[in-house]
Amino acid sequence: MTNSWTDIRNTDLVVIMGGNAAEAHPCGFKWVTEAKANRGAKLIVVDPRFTRSASVADFYAPIRQGSDIAFLLGVMNYCIKNDKVQWDYVKAFTNAAFIVKDGFEYKDGLFTGYDETKRDYDKSTWNYVIGDDGYAVVDDTLTNPRCVWNLLKAHISIYTPEMVERICGTPKEKFLKVAEMISECSTPTKTMTSMYALGWTQHSKGSQNIRSMAMLQLVLGNIGVRGGGMNALRGHSNIQGLTDVGLMSNLLPGYMTLPNEKEVDFDSYMSTRGFKPLRPNQTSYWQNYKKFFVSFLKTMWGAAATPENHFAYDWLPKLDVPGYDVLRAFELMNQGKMTGYICQGFNPLLAAPNRTKLTASLSKLKFLVTMDPLDTETSRFWENHGEFNDVDPSQIQTEVYQLPSTCFAEDEGSLTNSGRWLQWHWPGGTAPGEAKTDNWIMAQIYTRLRDLYRKEGGAFPDPIVNLDWSYADPGEPTAEELAKELNGKALTPLMDPTDPTKVVVEAGKLVPSFAALRDDGSTTSGCWIYSGCFNENGNNMARRDTSDPDETGAYSKWAFSWPVNRRILYNRASADLNGKAWDPSRKLIEWDGQKWSGYDVPDIAPTAKPQDVGPFIMNAEGVSRLFVVGMMRDGPFPSHYEPFESPVTNLIAPKIRGNPVARVFKGDFAQFAEPASQEFPYAATSYRLTEHFHYWTKHVWVNAVLQPEFFVEISEELAKEKGIVKGGWVRVWSKRGSIKAKAVVTKRIKPLICDGKPVHVVGIPLHWGFTGAAKKGFGPNSLTPFVGDANIETPEYKAFLVNIEPIAGPVA
Amino acid sequence: MNMELSRRQFLAATGAGVAGTALGAFGFGEIEAAHAEAIRAFKLVNTTETRNTCPYCSVACGIIMYSKGDLKKGEKAEIVHIEGDTDHPTNRGTLCPKGAALLDFVKAETRLKYPMVRKPGSDKFERISWNDALDRIARLMKDDRDGNFVQKNNDGVTVNRWTTTGFLAASATTNETAFATYKVVRSAGMLVFDNQARV
């Protein structure tokens, strides 16, 4: 989230699209209710199903899953055509005026530079014209036909209301009503918030779904303001934190990136991370990258990280591919190229796509380790559970360790919520049996591995035996010790850069924030964006002061919000070019002629003059990007692509199948149904129920009673067509698997008319497996395709093709 | 404003009332007294309150856990009740159908209690001690790393990577556990590393 849950109270319009907050995030959704009741805010829901969010919406519009980009670019096109643009914001705070290189073009669904065999682009033309002064050339009049604004206008002009109806199945008048309501938020005094979740991310073009809405929010001037923003509703309690701390193949903590093997040394790595400002006076905060990177390396390897060995740069593993994400991991397993796999609180047998492939892959491992408070399906993938897990244990040679861990109630530490609040929690109960904390388990594995290397030697022991592990009890680091490590400390006295006689941080003291970090090895910080979470003021994540001056919803003294306790990102954009709030009733920070101050920690240098320094300080441009240079694999603008399995062909680019640059492994393509397939004619999607959380609550008695049994949801029309009765049994199958379920025949799903042809939607909730208190059942991943988003490899769970037929139920 | 204190005071006062000292003062006669005795005492009397957050979605609602026994005093603590934290700015005491049933998660029958091993080809899990399990896991990891670690690629560039054992991190462990995990995984040179953000 750019904003926070409690900030939603400040909005005028909530758009829930790609999510279902009323059911999946009920207690956060109350802030929507609050905004409706107290501000007269409106709620729009756009979804293939008439969800509980839709049931309390002011307006609901249906959409075919996988067509969100067409819808959103359609709304943007409507806003621009009808002059519903917050012009001052767009001109000053976006790259609308930047001139794009000649040669950049979009045609027939592809941008310049496409290589079909590599499924990738040569992105060299996707860039700005750089002037003789070294800065990007701009045209503030927006008349140059090659400026971003004019290219954007041309790019989205195809997405007319008629085209949106043909692609999305949203009736034209419903689309126009949504577009009109959204366009009203282009005034400086009206704002809209976007609340989305995995309904947008779980597509082969998930990143561009989100980008489309972010761009629309920029056109309307809704980023950085109270009640506005792009608000990702993370699915799990600390998926934000796990990502912030960099637990992904290609990440370092704090959104720095792991080197690839072309970055042969420290200097070549840093050479592409200079972040030179692209316009005069701009902050380009990533220019501090080296400070954060060196402080991280010092945290890892302490005294062994020296200037002479470039702070142990070589000890970081170097990537040969963009990333070893979970899909690539299972692909490698399936090819027999992996020996072991360790799953910490993750149940991939149900959570990753194409279960048949997953089972085959796990069966090829030498060993599997799971750590979990619950008895997961993954840990029992080798056990026969009849049709729910039809395997022969004697044929599976994998050695499996199932390690019991504590749960939240028995563990201490911080979780980062969607709004970037790091909240500390305390243990209140004794763990059952011999269950241990994850800290203990990880430390026990580490110290054993380290001791084996000390004793026996082996393959390059240096990074393991030199890892800084100086905890009071090396067998179980405490949460406080680790939190202080994340925050960082001074290793030598830190002198004031403007007065070399003055010490600003004494040696050994925790740094107040990342502003104190240095690139010479004199500081540590495990995750720079978390710096300030636990400093000499104490554990800021444990703060419980509920004061909220003028009821802005900021709650600045409750817990700690990264970065530096900032509650709304880009908050300098809440004020105009002179530093005055766009909307005086929603003041956030303002410029008083000398400095910025207000309700939130300014997202800009406190003395940065508003006319000179742009609000988007992390971007080298100083402004936000309607056209993104080089960072998105599938284009600088979003473009409509169908899901890999689609009930229709791509109307605007009939030759393009799926996302043209999404990675597809050999063998998986053959397992995709053809577009507009006769064999698999129905458009399936997956979702959560309000009574369940992922695959956890089927272990919880109350929730298992509330929703005991797997089902699929279909329209009355499809039920009639197929002879399926309410509560009757059905078989649902895709090109990859087959499941059985009871049918819920509902008015909540209606057939959509896409380009004149009816499309039936089949809804598949995701909460059942073969362990726990609920009845045994299946998950959508028995059916879903093994392909992810082109940029970040989130599997395409939300749009795939199935067939369905009534069957005789099991004998009771 | 220290809401925690005021809340505790409130509960302490309520507790004292139910415990019986004030019964006479309220004028209960014998029948009422007998009736009052038959009513179970307020179950949160003499429990320890601990603040926590709901482990499910990312709203991170504040919760209060009530336990018999106090971990801070080194006692065994059994959680007997969980409710929403009325002081929490986001949820203000409310919980959803999942959060309201958290006690049943803590006490789920399928909570794991002991390390288990499933040997190759076997159709069952067997108990194993922590020591034996961890020793074996470290041995399996080291043997694989020693056998498959790549120090230099074909161009002679130092790459120091290990791609034959992978690690999947969670979605609900703490940031602190996340960092401990990060250190262990990366220092070993592992690249097959992901979390649940994608699903």
TrEMBL record, chain B:
Residues 47-110 form the 4Fe-4S Mo/W bis-MGD-type domain. It comes from the Bacteria. Its main location: other. It is found in: Cell envelope. One of its GO terms (biological process) is anaerobic respiration. GO terms for molecular function: 4 iron, 4 sulfur cluster binding; electron transfer activity; molybdenum ion binding; oxidoreductase activity. The keyword Oxidoreductase applies. Its cofactor is Mo-bis(molybdopterin guanine dinucleotide); [4Fe-4S] cluster. Keywords: 4Fe-4S, Iron, Iron-sulfur, Metal-binding, Molybdenum, Oxidoreductase. Coiled coil: none annotated. GO terms for cellular component: cell envelope. Pfam families: Molybdop_Fe4S4, Molybdopterin, TAT_signal. InterPro entries: Mopterin_OxRdtase, Mopterin_OxRdtase_4Fe-4S_dom, MopterinOxRdtase_cofactor_BS, TAT_signal, TAT_signal_bac_arc. PROSITE patterns: 4FE4S_MOW_BIS_MGD, MOLYBDOPTERIN_PROK_1, TAT. Belongs to the prokaryotic molybdopterin-containing oxidoreductase family. PANTHER family: FORMATE DEHYDROGENASE-O MAJOR SUBUNIT (PTHR43598:SF1), TUNGSTEN-CONTAINING FORMYLMETHANOFURAN DEHYDROGENASE 2 SUBUNIT B (PTHR43598). NCBIfam families: TAT_signal_seq. This is Formate dehydrogenase (Quinone-dependent) catalytic subunit.
